[in-house]
Every structure is written in structure tokens, then in C-alpha cells.
Amino acid sequence: MTLRTTKRLWTAALAVGTLGALSACAGGAGAGSSTPTPEDGAASGSVTMWTYPVIADEAAHKAFWDEQIAAFQEENPDVDVKVEIYPWAGRDETLATAIAGNKGPDVVYLIPDQIPKYGKSLAAVDNYVTDQVGDLRENASKAVTVDGAMLGSPLIMNSKPLVCNAAAFEAVGEAGNYPETWDDLMALAPTFQAAGYDVTNYWGSVDATLNESFYPLLWQAGGSVFSEDGSSVAFDSPEGIEALQFAVDLAEGGYIEKDLLTTIPAFEQTNTAKGKIACTWQQGPADVAGFWGEENVVVLPPLKEAEAVAFGTVGSLSVLKTAENLDAAGKWAAFATSPAVSTEYAKAAGWFSPYESESGLYADDPVLSALEDTLQYTTAGEVNEKSREVMGVLAPEIQAALIGEKTPEQALKDAAAAADPLLG
Amino acid sequence: MTATAPTSDGLTADGADRRPAPKPPRGGTRRVLERREARIGLLFALPAFLLFLLFRFGPAIAGVALSFFDYTIGVGAEWTGVENFRRMVDDPIFWSALRVTVVLSLLIVPVSLAISTFMALMVRRSFRGSGFYRSVFFLPVVTSLVLAATVFTWVFSTNGPWSKLMGALGFSTESWLGDTLLVLPALAMVAIWSRFGYGMLILLARMQDLPRELEEAAAIDGAGPWKRFWFIIAPQLKPTLFFLAVIETTASFQIFDLVYVMTAGGPARASYNLVFYIYDQGFKYFDLGYASALGVALFVVTLVVALIQRYAIGRDK
How many A×B Cβ pairs under 8 Å? Predict the structure, then answer.
């Protein structure tokens, strides 16, 4: 093939590719009203909802939604609702490419840090949930609100406060002496270390979300990830340095499992699963009860430095602007997140309702009751379109500090220098 | 000079065939036949060609086109010209990822080729159990890399056998996956383990095709195993080695599973390679324009390296 022929082929192929790419892009941008209003009377049409294995037993999960669909259809007999349960793994890839190809669902289960990411494709649900929004916990409502509009209706929520291992405390002779502050935890660390226990754990792999590792420390120190207007990062503040220094001190002292700083081993292989740990804010009771024994799981309020804050996520249902029957989708999302349905779903999944009036779901279960009490401390994080990108540049710098490659100041300074342009 | 008369079967007494050669079909008929054969051949190749065009060539070209756009899923596309490439040049993470990619490749390719060649030499002769050994050495190639990576994460952990072995030898027992200097050798070891069987198989096929006479003659002349390999076998393996070098380099440039499972690019981006960066930009942050530009850069780097390899190893062929 001559050079000229090759050039011609490339030019032609490039032109075809460009057209292809552009035509594919055309489907990506959403259209239509961003705050739709419910139409009078019953809705009609079809609604497809994508959700994930929030209830681990797939048959039970499917049966739950089948039951709700039947109840919804009593008032909206002309709406055909289809609930599709996808695996957690690769959910963003699946959803993003489906939206880009105009093959996305009408309603989808999202968590707070996904909402701003898909914000431009989502319709506000404010007008569909007016009856139930007043009863929402403030932190649940805040987690789904972007620029004053509710881009999702909260369905369930959880909390990651402090969970301690009673057996470990007993084994080291500190029975019942649970930490309340950073200083308490640090003071206990040498005792646990001498007995062959870690005082806590820290998942430092860059693939692990900072929402559950570093950010709780940052918030507890009184800091924040972003500035108030969200136009720059704020984690390199003195509070941020204090939070990272605390984590670095734990690592340098050998008080936490070193492998966890750089890799994500199978949970069964970790000291946490082996019960060789005092407390954790990165695992919930359900994660450790099977390993420690339910009787050894002690749920406590989150650690406090300047304030007591825990991460807690909110699962919500969002309506896509591209929904074929926007009214039916909005009405279904409102029904599926109504207090009664939410409570039933939360109990089936072992989570909690985002509604104030629906508390006390686990009166007979001391662990879950205690966990529910900590919902008041939770935040789902700061809503920002670039939160994941910022996490992407911050996590390796935190890791560098944890393994001693950088000082906390330098690591946060370098991360801020890389993160700020992302927000500009 | 007397010609031997042909016998009735057309052969001469000395056995030579003196029968007149069959007449070739007339020019026109042959062309028609050839054309017909070519058409049938093309017809058979067409489905594969169309699939290739649709699923390989098309997306690749679309990827190149996309690199000139600012395209974020859910936001839309905007023509930005070479802005993505300009951003790439100023992006320290790109350069760091490129460095990691090249270093990882430099660690993997030569060692992998050496081990493949050595193993192929070891199992090329038939001996009792040679088939078993060949299968065992090829097994890692067909083993799930994700599964293997999960196991190797434990092998390299602080309490894993590798760290214990290092401790027994008097070295540090710290996990190699947690060390910015040792993480790439650790990943390279797993990559080589997973790939050498493929190279061994290709080289084995070539070695079994080599004429034995030269080797035997050299042995009679007193050449030892090393000289026989270096002066007789190795020169004949050059085209195969060139092919393997290109394939292995391309594969090492595209390592993703190992990094994803074992280190996620850490510690402190010490194993954050270009493919992982492309994945992050494309599927974590949905910045497909920039991810495409990074993909184009990876393609160019791979092409340049392949050309260099062609010059260095394959220029005779």
C-alpha cells in the first residue's frame, strides 16, 4: 500500500469515526424539563428501574419489588414497571454507557457521590415527593440535593460510626474502656500493640473510597474537602494536616495493619476479620459480626476531635430526564421511596429509613438499635461534581504520606495543587 | 549425447519423468478460475473482515476522533482540537504513568523472552513426561489473571510466603507491594509467570521445525550446548523472537488486571500505568475525550517501540 493510499484511508476513516463519535454523543445530552410536575390522575406507560443487590438474596429482592409494583399498579393500572437488578461491580460503567447510548433506565438507584456526576442527566423530583420530604432526616435530604434541587428521593441510609471488639478489649485488660476521642484511641494503641492487636485499621489503597477512611478524620478535625462554594479544595487546611498526621502516627507507630495501606487483600485475611483489632470506623457491624461474634460487637458514636462525625451513605432513587414516561417514572420513584415502602425495604436490607418518623426499626436488636442512634452524626459527604476526581488525586498523596514518602503537609499541598485545576 | 527413450508409462529407464507437462489452461480460463477462487476466498473472509471493521477498526478510529473532543458522558461533546494533547503534555500524572509503563515493560519483556527460550529449549526434546511439563508450563497462560493476582497479593503480603522467604534470606519482610521501588518487580514477576508459557509454545513450534543436521554437525565439531544455541539455534529464532518481542511489549503496555487487583496503581502511584490512567479517566471520571487522547498516546508509544524492535531484532527479515 502506498503512503498516499494509507493517508487517504486514514483521512476517510477519521471522517467516518468523527461522524460516528458525534452521532453517538448526540444521545448523551438530556433534554426536557429539569423539574417536572406531576400530572393529575393516574400515570400511564412503562417504567424501567435499575437497582443493585441492596438485599443480598436476589429472589427475596425481586419478590420485594414485585410486591411493590403490584401495590403501585392498584392506583396506576396503566403503568408497566420493570425492576432490573444489576451487580454492584462496574455499575458506573454500565450506567454511563447506557445513558450515552440512550439506553438508560427511567429510574435508577444512586448514592450521593454519584448524583452530581449524573446531575445533568437527572430530573429533579421535588414536585413528586412534596408529601414526604418534610419527614426526611436533614442529612438524608442534603445528600440528594444539588443546587437546591432534589435529584433523588432517599430510600434508605446507613452509618459507619465506631465499632469496637469487646473480646479484644477484654483480652488486653481494657474491658469496657472504649475510646471516644483520637487521644483515647492513641493512648490505647501501645497496649493493644503489645498484646498483638491493631488498635484500628486504615484502608489506604487508592481504590478504597476516602469517604470511609480519611474524610471522617478530616470532618472530625473540623475540616472539609471543598471550600464552601465548592470552587476550590480545602483539605490542605490545618485541620486536614492534623487529620492526616493522626493517620500517619498510627501507621508509623505500627498500630495498624501495614498491608492495608497499599493493597486490598481478601477481607478474611485481614487482622480485622481475624479479630486482632480493637475498633474500626471503616467496617460496620454486619461486616464484622460473623468474625468477632455478634456478642462482641459494640457500636459507639464516631470518634471526636473537634466534633463527632461519621460517614453514612444514602441510597436514593433518581429519575432520568430521558425517561420515556417522565410522569410515570416520577410517580413510581415517589411511591417506591415513600415512608412505608422505605421502612420495609430498609428492614429487608438491614439498613435504616431516611424518615424521622420511621425510626426504632430494630427495637429487639441492640446492635442495630445502637447503629440507628448514630444516624444523627452522619454525613454522606460534600456534594461536588468533581468529588471522585478530587479523590483520585488525593488518595495517592495520602498513601505517600502513610508509607513515609511525603510529610502530611507536602502530600496535601501536592494533592491540592493537582485538585484545584479540576474544579476550575 | 543420447536421449533415453521413454517407456510406455512416460518414464525413462533412469526413472526420470519425460512426460510432456500438462498444458496450462488457456490464459482467459485461468484468470476466470483465479478470479472465482479469489471471490470465494473473499466471501469467506468477509464476515471476519466486517466484524473486525465494526468492532476493532471502527472503535479505534472513533477513539482517535474522540481525542479531539471534550466529551463527558451525560454532558455532551465539544470540539477542542488538540487541547487534550496539550493537557497531556502538561500533565505530570501522564508522564509518571508513561514512565511506569515503560519500566514495567523493560522489566517484563527481556526476562519473559529469556525464560520462554530457556523453557522451550528444556522441553523441545521428547522425554518421559515432556508433554506433562509442556502443559504445566502453559497452564498460567490459561489461568484467570484476576484469580492469579488475588493469590499473588497474598503471596507478596507481609505474612505471605515471599516476604517470609525474603526474611529467611536476611532481607526485609516488608510487602513488596507496599514499597515504591519493589512494587514493579513484584508485578513483573507475576506478569512473566502468566506469559512465559505462551512464548515457550511459539518458540517450541519453531525449534521443532529447525533442521537438526546443523546442530549435529556442530556437536561433532566440538561445539558445546551454549555455542550450538548461540551460533546455530538463536539466529534461526530471530523472526520468532521479533514476533514475540512485539507481542510481549504490546501485552506489557496493556497490563491492567494485575495492577487493578494487586495495587490499584499504588503505593503512591508507583505502579500507576497508562492503561490504568486511561481506565480512570474514561470509566471513573467519564472524561472520554482525554481518555481517548491518552489511548492515542499509548498507541503511538507502542508503535514506536515496535518499530525500534523491528530495527533491532527483525531487520534481517
Answer: 138
